[in-house]
């Protein structure tokens, strides 16, 4: 099909590089892990199990934590109407629609697959945005579902959690068990090398965790930009999405701090992050790209739409 | 969407399928025989108007095209920000209606705005409350929509019409995609 939007190769490339680096990290990490395999198996199983549960029940966990409830078409006809139309435009299955009773204006999408996904808007969002802006925000959330962001981010953060567990395990064992007490052959060289390997594993794990943390965050930022872009392509109105973003970011700064702190752990799934005012995060660790960066991308799409009559 | 596209967050706009629209006139005969539903002569194209001068330009062209035919058409914007171009043939003439609506579709498609097309709605009536056949561009399928008073719909009637037309039209197999279009023109 002929399309007015040029593909953003740069964004795809950056995302590919980030994913690749994450994968590379995994390979290096596994190699180090083999040294420790006997005692680490259980830890990995537990970590994997927990993460899988989080992934499998992501829709229910997020809804419960945000106090959201699924609404029928009769209860919220306007919200359902917007989601219906967007899904028909994008040709995707319709997710469950939920509303959370919170004055923080925000929306999130979660669920392990497009078939079992939930898109949730807060009452604060519904109250503040007009129909067009709401459509832009929901299109952004539907793009997260289409891109399977819950699955991608779960896999990405799994490695970080894994490394963190091994680090902790190694530190405790080192402190209480003492280094070198395991090889009781009376061979001095053996004790030294075991201790050395142990320290190396711990150090590598810590480094792995730090790197994977930064990479996961940067992957999250790219996926936000990708969702923005897909939403603008779907509605054909990048400027409306930009307006909604600006509006929400301005509103965010005026909300009472207590409520915002309560919402912070869920930033990864939010449309605009709810950060307490005065809390400055380095852009490296942020889950969302800066407002300027998001507005720039949307402005570029708007220019593409206006080009050549 | 492919695995790589999902991994890279690269969903593409879905192109519309316009072919199944022309199966309607034949199906309308079946419908009249089986359920006494006749076309009211009202049909409309629903799309999401994109921002920018090119879209405004192509829209003006399409409207000129419709006006040239000497046909009656109106334009309205609904609560969701979607634009409806409504064609009214009097006496009801399905062939002309479908041809004119197709002209609107291909006009938008050729200009690169095919992904903005949402649905086409053709109205039918058996003398009582009108109902509609809705064509989903992105899936190339049809579904019936029979509204009642106060944002309710007559599911029994929709399923009956769906069953009658099953052999003539490609009906949408997933009922969750039969979304309601309350207040659509002609209903």
What does this 3D model show about the protein?
The complex is a heterodimer of chains A (309) and B (187). Chain A has 11 helices and 4 strands; from the N terminus they run αααβαβββααααααα. With 309 residues, chain A is mainly α. In chain A, α6 (131-146) crosses α8 (188-235) and α9 packs antiparallel against α11 (291-306). Chain A is 67% helix and 6% strand. Chain A has helices at residues 9-35, 37-56, 58-65, 77-90, 123-128, 131-146, 149-177, 188-235, 238-252, 257-263, 291-306, and strands spanning 68-70, 96-100, 107-110, 118-122. A 4-stranded mixed sheet of chain A has the order 1-2-4-3, sandwiched between helices. With 187 residues, chain B is of the alpha+beta class. Helix content of chain B is 33%, strand content 25%. Chain B has helices spanning 3-8, 24-35, 53-68, 94-110, 155-165; strands spanning 38-47, 72-77, 83-88, 117-125, 131-136, 141-145, 147-148, 152-153. In chain B, the strands form 2 sheets. In chain B, strands 2-3-1-4-5-6 form a 6-stranded antiparallel sheet. The longest helix of chain B is centred in the middle third of the chain and has 17 residues, at 94-110. Chain B is globular, with a radius of gyration of 17 Å. The interface between A and B is large, with 53 and 43 residues.
Short summary:
Chain A is mainly α and 309 residues long. In chain A, 67% of the residues lie in helices and 6% in strands.
């Amino acid at each position: 099909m002929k399309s007015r939007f040029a593909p953003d190769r740069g964004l795809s490339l950056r995302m590919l590089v980030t994913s690749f680096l994450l994968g590379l990290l995994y390979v290096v990490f596994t190699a180090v892990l083999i040294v420790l395999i006997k005692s680490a198996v259980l830890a990995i199983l537990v970590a994997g199990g927990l993460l899988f549960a989080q992934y499998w029940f992501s829709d229910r966990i997020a809804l419960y934590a945000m106090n959201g409830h699924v609404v029928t078409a009769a209860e919220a006809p306007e919200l359902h109407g917007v989601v219906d139309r967007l899904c028909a435009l994008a040709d995707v299955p319709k997710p469950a629609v939920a509303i959370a009773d919170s004055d923080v204006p925000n929306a999130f999408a979660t669920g392990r697959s497009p078939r079992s996904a939930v898109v949730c808007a807060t009452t604060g969002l519904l109250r503040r945005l007009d129909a067009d802006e709401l459509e832009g925000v929901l299109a952004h959330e539907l793009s997260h579902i289409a891109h399977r962001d819950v699955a991608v981010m779960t896999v990405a953060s799994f490695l970080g959690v894994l490394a963190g567990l091994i680090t902790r395990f190694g530190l405790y064992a080192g402190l209480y068990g003492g280094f070198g007490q395991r090889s009781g052959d009376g061979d001095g060289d053996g004790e030294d090398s075991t201790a050395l390997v142990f320290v190396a594993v711990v150090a590598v794990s810590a480094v792995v965790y730090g790197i994977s943390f930064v990479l996961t965050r940067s992957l999250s930022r790219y996926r936000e930009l990708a969702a923005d872009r897909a939403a603008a392509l779907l509605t054909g109105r990048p400027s409306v999405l930009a307006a909604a973003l600006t509006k929400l970011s301005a509103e965010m700064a005026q909300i009472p701090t207590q409520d915002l702190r309560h919402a912070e752990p869920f930033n990864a799934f939010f449309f605009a992050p709810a950060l307490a005012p005065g809390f400055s995060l380095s852009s490296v660790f942020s889950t969302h790209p800066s407002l300027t960066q998001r507005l720039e991308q949307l402005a570029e799409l708007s220019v593409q739409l206006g080009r050549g009559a | 969407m492919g695995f790589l596209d999902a991994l890279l967050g690269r969903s593409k706009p879905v192109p519309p399928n316009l072919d199944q629209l022309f199966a309607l006139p034949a199906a309308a005969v079946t419908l009249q025989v089986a359920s006494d539903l006749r076309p009211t002569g009202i049909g409309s194209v629903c799309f999401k108007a994109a921002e920018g001068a090119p879209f405004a330009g192509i829209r003006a062209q399409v409207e000129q095209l419709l006006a040239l035919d000497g046909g009656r058409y109106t334009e309205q914007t609904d609560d969701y920000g979607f634009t409806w171009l409504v064609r009214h043939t009097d006496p009801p003439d399905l062939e002309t209606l479908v041809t004119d609506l197709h002209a609107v579709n291909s006009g938008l498609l050729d200009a690169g705005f095919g992904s903005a097309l949402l649905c086409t709605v053709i109205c039918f009536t058996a003398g009582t409350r009108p109902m509609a056949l809705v064509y989903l561009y992105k899936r190339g399928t049809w579904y019936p929509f029979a509204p009642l008073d106060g944002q309710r719909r007559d599911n029994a009637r929709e399923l009956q019409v769906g069953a009658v037309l099953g052999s003539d039209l490609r009906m949408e197999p997933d009922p969750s995609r039969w979304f309601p279009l309350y207040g659509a023109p002609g209903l």
